[in-house]
């Protein structure tokens, strides 16, 4: 039977006072009398429960993943706690010495708390106590951190965010060792540091605590969990519903507004995995203490959906790097390790075990033990990655992040189509941006964030100035730029008010397609993009069809960049390389950071402009673009006006059309061939696309493709729901009885 602090008490009638010395028991010394209810309460009572602890004590006796993790953790911790205590006065920003010491301290305390519960060895509880005594001396002497650089300042850390993360981990450590402590020791720790930190994060930081943002999530989690441990129900209510408990702020409002109904997080995958930790950790504490709230059932199980969506928003182990994302973050991140364990503990879905196996680690919690046992028994099944439109916004109607997958495997071809809302302050100005992944690699790339996380020499580990001047700008992404100006003039407050409309989404066996539009990114210009992932019959290749249309009554310059990863091979047109000197492509909106390395002037000599490159994954890729007499091609490389070499030297092809009103870019990205330098062979390095065109017949849109072997294909689609359509090619009528379909025509 689970015991909890608020609503599930067991009254034993023992004369044990919460303000007295904790009893000692060889089996378990985790019951203390509540000051408020005079009933016995168990500790730990957050993520782990007494039942979890008892199961873990047995599990470490048995060979397996859990025992291995325990022994590794114990060996590392035993070595670490032999070192002198180090609780320095805070002075460094993120990545600096004192910052990293305080981070390490909360991690060590967290681990020591868990090991105390499992082993019952008092040295671990004493370590947590001794460290917290030092913090109880230090914290009352602090004012705002000397390196405060944000609207969410901290005292122990440069950001209140880090302060909240510290408390989330520390309160779990304290919860684990609390029964070991005497009345005076608890008083010293609670009054000296735990209560002051909680009050600083809540009453003294209302602008963050009530904010619908990941900083607010961490703060409410920290304060709410502290409320459960310190027997302060009022703190729990404020954490759930805001400082005035009206529901205008707090954890529940964040659950309502930060996730869409299918679990997509407003700021994108990178921040989804970061925010996931406080969401699932606090939810687990709520479930253990107040199961009647049914927190994991809230909003049709939105938290469980969020955990699954976080895994879905990845490719070959790494998260899709939209918005302010560090591109090296993936599914093995500790936040998702906790999320997958909690989700499996609730649902028992064996596909989640596949993700856990890929993560390569288990955690020392009750849920982590369940995962470890299941993996030891080989109970995992293949996780099913899906083609899906992840609706954005609280109601799921503020655009969508669309993921088109050729199949369910982790290395299948994938197109991501970012037709989302802005993503708050971490959002980038790239409405309807496109990325492509194939054969385990990123082919059409998204820049992500310009930041060297926690590298002090690089702007203190913060976002670099180039994050604003380049990475967030529209030209740094694969979407249309009008008149060398970013969407919404690069103003976040304006961008937050607008989003694209997802016009069409189809998931056919051979063609996955999405279409979206927006008319607010530029005044007087409407943008519509349709993209499709096409599985070519009987061949192990995929095409990406892309149709980007601009509509305007006045003339503009339209630029469509394709940022790519790999080595340029060839083009089917003449171009002028700037081999001796380089100039920046422009002066603002990110253009000032692009070297113009080569360019090709308008020409009507080819029906398609063709560019081929080789990716490190050993495959060739060719961008085939329908030509027009006024289409220029620009070759660029990032790094201009970057004296500190902060930017990656990413490369791009930019299709440019000047002096146009309505204009349409039509292209096909083809994966082909193989390059194997080890075995010294090259296969199919040439693009097979002979011709490419687009037309519309009534409601039917058609992309016509002919290959060098004279095989012909038509990708046809319409958005007339529930209606059959038809079209004519070379005198033959074809019926389109579904939204989208690939037709293979007879050879000429």
TrEMBL record:
Primary location group = periplasm
Residue intervals passing through the bilayer? none
* Keywords of the record: Lyase, Periplasm, Signal
Which ranges carry the Heparinase II/III-like C-terminal domain? 393-661
Question: Which Pfam families does the entry link to?
Answer: Alginate_lyase, Hepar_II_III_C
Please state every residue range assigned to the domain named Alginate lyase.
76-312
Q: Which InterPro entries match?
A: Alginate_lyase_dom, Chondroitin_lyas, Hepar_II_III_C
**Where can this protein be found?**
Periplasm
Protein name per Swiss-Prot or TrEMBL: Heparinase II/III family protein
């Amino acid at each position: 039977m689970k015991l909890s602090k608020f609503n599930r008490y067991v009254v034993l009638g023992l004369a044990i006072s919460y303000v007295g010395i904790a009893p000692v028991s060889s089996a378990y010394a985790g019951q203390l009398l509540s000051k408020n209810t005079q009933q016995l309460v168990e500790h730990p009572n957050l993520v782990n429960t007494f039942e979890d602890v008892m199961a873990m004590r047995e599990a470490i006796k048995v060979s397996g993943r859990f025992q291995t993790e325990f022994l590794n953790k114990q060996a590392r911790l035993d070595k670490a706690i032999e070192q002198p205590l180090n609780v320095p006065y805070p002075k460094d920003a993120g990545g600096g010495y004192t910052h990293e010491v305080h981070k390490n301290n909360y991690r060590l305390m967290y681990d020591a708390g868990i090991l105390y519960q499992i082993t019952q060895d008092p040295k671990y509880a004493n370590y947590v106590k001794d460290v917290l005594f030092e913090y109880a001396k230090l914290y009352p002497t602090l004012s705002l951190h000397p390196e405060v650089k944000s609207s969410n300042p901290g005292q122990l850390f440069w950001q209140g965010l880090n302060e909240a993360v510290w408390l989330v981990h520390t309160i779990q450590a304290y919860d684990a060792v609390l029964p070991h402590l005497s009345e005076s020791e608890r008083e010293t720790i609670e009054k000296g540091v735990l209560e002051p930190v909680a009050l600083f994060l809540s009453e003294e930081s209302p602008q963050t605590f009530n904010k619908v943002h990941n900083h607010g999530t961490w703060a409410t989690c920290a304060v709410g969990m502290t409320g459960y441990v310190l027997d302060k129900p009022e703190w729990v209510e404020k954490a759930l519903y805001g400082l005035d408990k009206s529901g205008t702020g707090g954890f529940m409002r964040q659950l309502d507004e930060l996730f869409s109904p299918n679990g997509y997080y407003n700021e994108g995958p990178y921040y989804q995995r970061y925010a996931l930790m406080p969401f699932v950790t606090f939810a687990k504490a709520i479930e253990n203490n107040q199961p009647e709230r049914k927190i994991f059932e809230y909003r049709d199980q939105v938290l469980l959906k969020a955990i699954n969506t976080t895994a879905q928003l990845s490719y070959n182990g790494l998260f899709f790097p939209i918005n302010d994302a560090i591109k090296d973050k993936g599914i093995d991140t500790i936040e998702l390790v906790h999320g997958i364990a909690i989700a499996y503990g609730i649902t028992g879905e064996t596909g989640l075990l596949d993700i856990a196996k890929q993560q390569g680690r288990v955690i020392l919690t009750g849920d982590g033990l369940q995962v470890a046992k299941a993996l030891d028994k080989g109970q995992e099944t293949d996780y099913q990655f899906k083609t899906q439109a992840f609706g954005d916004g609280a109601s799921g109607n503020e655009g969508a992040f669309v993921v088109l997958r050729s199949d369910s495997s982790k290395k299948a071809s994938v197109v991501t189509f970012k037709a989302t809302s802005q993503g708050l302050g971490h959002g980038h100005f790239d409405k309807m941006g496109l990325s492509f992944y194939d054969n385990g690699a990123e082919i059409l790339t998204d820049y992500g964030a310009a930041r060297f996380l926690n590298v002090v020499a690089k702007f203190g580990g913060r976002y670099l100035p180039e994050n604003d001047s380049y990475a967030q700008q529209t030209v740094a992404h694969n979407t249309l730029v009008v008149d060398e100006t970013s969407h919404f003039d690069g103003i976040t407050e304006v961008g937050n008010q607008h989003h694209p409309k997802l016009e069409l989404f189809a998931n056919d066996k051979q063609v996955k397609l999405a279409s979206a539009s927006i008319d607010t990114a530029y005044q007087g210009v409407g943008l519509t993009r349709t993209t499709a992932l096409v599985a070519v019959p009987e061949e192990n290749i995929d095409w990406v069809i892309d149709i980007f249309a601009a509509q305007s009554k006045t003339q503009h310059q339209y630029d469509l960049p394709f940022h790519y990863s790999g080595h340029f091979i060839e083009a089917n047109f003449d171009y002028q390389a700037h081999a001796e000197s380089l100039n920046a492509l422009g002066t603002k909106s990110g253009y000032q950071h692009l070297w113009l390395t080569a360019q090709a002037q308008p020409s009507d000599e080819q029906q398609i402009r063709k560019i081929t490159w080789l990716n490190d994954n050993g495959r060739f890729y060719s961008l085939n673009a329908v030509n027009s007499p006024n289409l220029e091609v620009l070759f660029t490389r990032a790094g201009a006006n970057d004296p500190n070499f902060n930017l990656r030297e990413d490369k791009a092809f930019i299709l440019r059309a000047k002096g146009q009103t309505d204009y349409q870019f039509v292209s096909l990205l083809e994966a082909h061939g193989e390059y194997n330098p080890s075995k010294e062979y090259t296969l199919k390095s040439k693009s097979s696309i002979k011709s490419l065109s687009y037309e519309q017949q009534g409601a039917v849109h058609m992309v016509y493709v002919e290959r060098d072997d004279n095989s012909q294909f038509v990708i046809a689609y319409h958005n007339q729901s529930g209606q059959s359509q038809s079209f004519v090619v070379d005198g033959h009528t074809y019926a389109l009885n579904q939204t989208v379909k690939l037709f293979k025509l007879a050879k000429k």
